[in-house]
Amino acid sequence: MRPAAALVSRYAAVVCDLDGVVYRGPTAVPHAVEALRALDVPVLYATNNASRAPGDVAAHLRELGLPCAPELVATSSQAGAWLMTQRMPAGTSVLAVGGPGVATALEEAGLTVLRPDAGAGHTVSAVLQGYGPSVTASDLAEAAYAVQAGATWVATNTDATLPTDRGMAPGNGSLVAAVERAVGRGPDVVAGKPAPPLYLLCAERLDIPAGRVLAVGDRLDTDIEGAVAAGMDSLFVLTGVDDLYACLEAPASRRPTWVAPDLRALATDPDAGPASLVRLAAAVRAVHAARDAGAPSSELARLTERVQSLLGDVTPG
Ligand SMILES: [Mg+2]
User: Fold this and answer.
1) Cα-to-centroid distance, 240 and ligand 1 (Å)
2) Number of separate domains in the chain
3) At 158, which CATH number?
4) Which one from 19, 218, 223, 233 is the annotated catalytic residue?
5) pLDDT confidence of 164, banded at 50, 70, 90?
6) Rg (CA), the chain
7) Is the pTM of this model over 0.70?
8) If you measure from the C-alpha of residue 102 to the centroid of ligand 1, how many angstroms do you get, rounded to a whole number?
9) Which Gene3D superfamilies does this entry report, sorted A to Z (predicted)?
10) Which segments within the chain are labelled E, that is strand?
C-alpha cells in the first residue's frame, strides 16, 4: 500500500514518458511496471516516437505486464494531427511523411491522407512529417515540394538522434533538417516534446488542467522542458538518458519539480524521513540558485555533495 500522502496524491493524473522511464528497448526499467500498476490516478503515456501506432505501443506495455489500452498512449503524430484539426477544417488534405503511425493519426483525426508515393499532380494544405525507418529521399522531396507550394509544415518532433542497439541513428530532427536545407526554413509547428502540444493533448484527453498533471521523464531537453512549457509539474527520474549532473547544470527552462532515482518515488511520501523527496528537491534548487548567482566552485561542490547524499538515502531499499 502506498502512503495516503504519496507524491502522486498531490496530482490528478500522470503523463509518463516511455523510453528510459518504462522500458529501454524491449526490456522494462526495474520497478517501473510495479510502480505504475499501483497508481490510482489516470496515467497517459506520451511518446515523441511518431513511427509506432498507439496500439503497438500499448501491446508492448501489456507484454511487459502493464495493462494498457491504445487510448492511454499519446504520440507526437497524434499531437501533430490534433494541432491540424485546430487550424484546418475536417477532411483537409495532408501529406503524411513517416512511419504508419503518422498516416493513422491523421486518418483518426478526420483528415484526408495523401502518401508521398502518390506523386505529382496533388495539392495538399499541410505536411505532417514524422519518423519512419523506411522514409526515403523521395519522401523528403515530396515534403519539400509541398512546403514550397505553401503547405503548412508540422513536424511530429525534432529529436536529432534515435538510439538503437547499434548506435545512434538519424532521428526525425535530422530528417526535418534535410527538408529545411532544401526549403530554406524550419517547420511551422513542432508537436512533440519539448514543444507543449503533446502534453496539452494529454491534458485535454484526461480533461484535467495541465497544472494538476505530473509529467514524468528521463530527458531534460524534451520531457522536462516540455513540462515547464506546458505548465505541468515534473518528476525527473534517473533511469534513462540524463544523469543527476545534467539536472544540476540545467537552465531554468529544463528544471524539474522533483528528482528521484526511479518511479518508486510516485508512491513515496515526499515529506517522510530526513532524506525526503522534498529535501532532495530543495537541495537541487539550491544548486540551481547558486549557479544562477555565480557562486564559487567550492560552494557548488558542497551543495552538490548534499544532493548526492540525499539521493543515496532517498532510494528505497
Ligand atoms: Mg525518454
Assistant:
1) 6
2) 2
3) 3.40.50.1000
4) 19
5) confident
6) 21
7) yes
8) 20
9) HAD superfamily/HAD-like
10) 13-16, 23-24, 27-28, 43-47, 73-75, 93-97, 112-114, 126-129, 152-155, 161-164, 167-170, 189-190, 213-217, 233-237, 258-260
d(CA 226, CA 48): 11
What tens digit of pLDDT does each residue of 47-97 get?
Answer: 998 778 899 999 999 999 999 999 999 999 999 999 999 999 999 999 999
CB 26 within 8 A of CB 55: no
Query: Where in the sequence is the domain holding 35, given as residue range(s)?
Result: 7-48+195-314
* Candidate list 17, 139, 159, 218, residue with the active-site label: 17
- Based on the domain organization, do 243 and 310 belong to the same domain? yes
Same domain for 157 and 94?
Answer: yes
Cα 311 from chain centre? 24
Q: Based on the residue annotation, tell me whether 19 is a catalytic residue of this protein.
A: yes
185/200 same-domain check: no
Domain boundary among 143, 164, 190: 190
> Same domain for 106 and 36?
no
pLDDT tens-place string over residues 201-224: 999 999 999 999 999 999 999 999
Per-residue cell: 217: 521523464
So what's the pLDDT on residue 2?
Answer: 53
Q: Last residue of some domain: 155, 190, 225?
A: 190
CA of 209 to the centre of ligand 1 (A): 23
Residue 126 lies in a domain: yes
Q: For residue 65, is it within any domain?
A: no
Kindly give the distance from the C-alpha atom of residue 57 to the centroid of ligand 1, in angstroms, as a whole number: 14
